[in-house]
Specification:
674 residues; alpha+beta; Beta-galactosidase, Chain A, domain 5; Glycosyltransferase; nine-stranded antiparallel sheet; eight-stranded antiparallel sheet; 18 helices; 34 strands
């Protein structure tokens, strides 16, 4: 295919040879089935989540680390040169292969290392087969001529643990042996990992390699040691311009043709870009194209009995599954801004199967589990996701199918549902919450401590409620039904919403009618009363909100979750579980809010280019942290270092959605709605 891939993520020796910089930059790959692969530029394992194949052994998202490392050593006659690095519990770093790294770059999303060993240049690539639990690790000699072929010995390290845990030596005892030319690792009742080579052969071994040090887990206050089982070596031959490598798969058959597999992966990257480019404008910048590829990493198959092609969204890598709230917020950016209307429809229909008492699940169930419905906002974001989908698709047939579900959702909110969620007839606003439960996106909880309970009438919930009612009025009109009920409810909610207005142009209250009264904390939740398509406020009030958020909360990468002037403000997101959860929504900068700020700024000031420029710092962030993707959060204090999950769906999606909408608005301004 002729489509070129963005050439954005690229580093030379200044970064690759500096351990601190090389380790803080991570690559992440997904396969569309919930599996992933991840690591650092340096090749060290700094998280327990790093590995070559982390796959859903208990579908859809019971993910286990099954293939940890492929440690290559170059053999040139009597000389042996390791092409891998490890951190050890003793504090030692051995070997130091990152010092041989001449460069690292992403080819699409595929990580590529180039090692310079004297006159030899060795290129290494890693990729996952889309739609299969198969990983390829390939090397080639990228030197024009060689007096004789070089040999590569690759030590194969496997595991069999939940990706949220650690392994001790002897923690599992698989059956390992050669089956024909394949090396098979059989963990009875769980999985069989099948390894094969291209341009090489395998030989079995057995030994535990222990005391791997995981500094990022130590930073999080979690166990910091791990062990992996060495089950054999791949003995490969390197020749100029020819790929050799290892293929590891949970599938019965996996193609061993490295060239064909490499082409399949890169061709798919080009097809994704070709689909996205018409939605992103005439010539989107390389960083936006890179983000559109990153969007694909979060989409995965979630088949249901009555919807075999069901689809959902992984909220973030490495530790999140699919969340109702995150999925609906991320859907427009991940799918509509990238030209994937089919995925948008499948996701919306998948979630329709789980609507219960007017609510969407907060977290999707694992195998044999019951959905958890402890969220007040996921269902309200569902209306906005449908609006965004129909704005682009005009899919009336889908609206006809889902309209009864949406009607019932409104009815449940009016008469009341779980967790005291319901409409207050006195002011038309939604009330939500009860002790011990966190229902909004500010949902940190440590043990029994709900850090930001926000019981009462949260401002963003009621902005979403008004938006949902206006959407339902439009949907009813579209289908030939009377919109009167929804218009009446919306008018009452709009009038009641004026209660949120604080005096002296201080913005909006964060929560009304809470156990301790009204909460005047300056938080970004008020921004949604401006950024959503339907606002319950006049233009002057919207301007004040944008100015308050800009002055008190805005940073280069997103908005602080709490003003720095508040006594509970946390400038950095560090420490153990309690410290981090305590600061999660008390000052940490959230990347997903940047797109909403840009849209709100456009609505108030009408300058699409200036609003779009707010997103530009994300370009630089794509070269830091999770490469080519966007982190979950950042420190509230400068320089706003990336924290939390290194790849977060709504962080990517909200930047993409805002950029795409603003690009369209630059050409066809539509001041009434977005």
């Amino acid at each position: 295919m002729s489509e070129t891939l963005p050439d954005l993520i690229r580093f030379g020796r200044a970064v690759c040879g500096d351990l601190a910089q090389a380790e803080r930059r991570e690559w992440w790959l997904g396969n569309g089935l919930g599996a992933y692969a991840a690591g650092s530029i340096a090749g060290t394992l700094t998280r327990r989540y790093h590995g070559l194949l982390v796959a859903p052994i208990e579908p859809p998202l019971g993910r286990w680390l099954v293939f940890a490392k492929a440690e290559a050593t170059l053999i040139d006659g009597e000389r042996e040169v390791p092409l891998f690095s490890n951190r050890w519990g003793s504090g030692a770093l051995e070997p130091l292969a990152y010092l041989h790294l001449e460069s690292f770059h992403l080819d699409g999303r595929m990580p590529v290392w180039r090692y310079a060993i004297g006159q030899w240049i060795i290129e290494q690539r890693i990729w996952l087969e889309p739609g299969a639990n198969t990983v390829y690790v390939a090397w080639r000699l990228d030197t024009a001529t060689a007096a004789q072929p070089l040999d590569l010995r690759v030590r194969l390290l496997v595991n069999a643990r939940d990706h949220h845990s650690n392994m001790a030596p002897g923690g599992f005892t698989p059956q390992v042996g050669m089956v024909g030319e394949r090396l098979e690792v059989v963990c009875h009742d769980h999985f069989t990992l099948r390894l094969q080579t291209a341009a090489g052969r395998l030989q079995a071994a057995w030994d535990w390699i222990e005391d791997f040090d995981l500094p990022l887990e130590r930073e999080r206050g979690l166990p910091e040691r791990d062990a992996h089982l060495w089950i054999g070596d791949a003995l490969l031959t390197l020749q100029p311009g020819q790929w050799s490598g290892v293929i590891a798969s949970l599938d019965e058959t996996a193609a061993a043709d490295l060239d064909a597999a490499l082409c399949r992966f890169l061709d798919r990257e080009r097809r994704l870009l070709a689909r996205a480019r018409p939605m992103l404008g005439d010539s989107p910048p390389a960083w936006i194209e890179q983000l559109s590829l990153a969007a694909d990493s979060f989409l995965f198959a979630r088949p249901l009995a009555d919807l075999p092609d069901g689809e959902s969204v992984i909220a973030g890598y490495p530790w999140f599954g699919d969340w109702g709230r995150d999925t609906m917020i991320a859907l427009p950016g991940l799918t509509l801004a990238t030209g994937r209307l089919d995925s948008a429809r499948r996701i919306l229909l998948t979630f329709a199967r789980f609507v219960d008492q007017g609510m969407l699940p907060n977290t999707f169930p694992g195998a044999g589990e019951t959905p958890a419905y402890n969220t007040v906002d996921a269902g309200l974001w569902y209306f906005e996701a449908w609006r965004a989908y129909l704005e682009v698709s005009h899919d009336e047939a889908a609206l006809v199918d889902v309209f009864p579900v949406l009607v019932a959702m409104i009815d449940w909110h009016v008469r009341g549902t779980r967790y005291q969620i319901g409409r207050d007839s006195a002011d038309g606003l939604l009330y939500a919450g009860e002790p011990g439960v966190q229902l909004t996106w500010m949902d940190a909880k440590a043990g029994d401590w709900v850090v930001t309970p926000r019981i009462g009438k949260p401002v963003e919930i009621n902005a979403l409620w008004y938006n949902a009612l206006m959407i339902m009025a439009k949907f009813a009109e579209w289908l030939g039904h009377s919109p009167q009920r929804y218009n009446t409810l919306a008018a009452q909610a709009r009038q009641g919403f004026q209660r949120f207005i604080r005096p002296a142009e201080a913005g909006l209250f964060d929560v009304l009618d809470g156990p301790a009264g009204d909460d005047s904390s300056t938080r970004p939740n008020q921004l949604f009363a401006v950024s959503l398509p339907y606002s319950p406020l006049d233009v002057d009030r919207q301007r004040i909100i944008v100015e308050v958020c800009g002055r008190e909360l805005l940073t280069s990468y997103g908005l602080r979750s709490l003003t720095a002037q508040h006594s509970h403000y946390h400038p950095t997101y560090l420490g153990g579980v309690w410290e981090r959860d305590g600061g999660y929504h008390q000052g940490a900068v959230w990347g997903w809010l940047l797109g909403h700020y840009a849209l709100a700024e456009y609505r108030v000031f009408g300058d699409a280019q200036a609003a779009q420029n707010r997103l530009q710092p994300i370009r630089d962030h794509l070269l830091d942290g999770g490469l080519g993707t966007v982190s979950e959060i950042f420190d509230g204090a400068a320089p706003h270092l990336p924290r939390g999950a290194p790849a977060q769906a709504w962080s990517v999606a909200c930047v993409l959605e805002a950029w795409q909408r603003l690009e369209r608005l630059k050409k066809n301004p539509t001041p009434e709605t977005l």
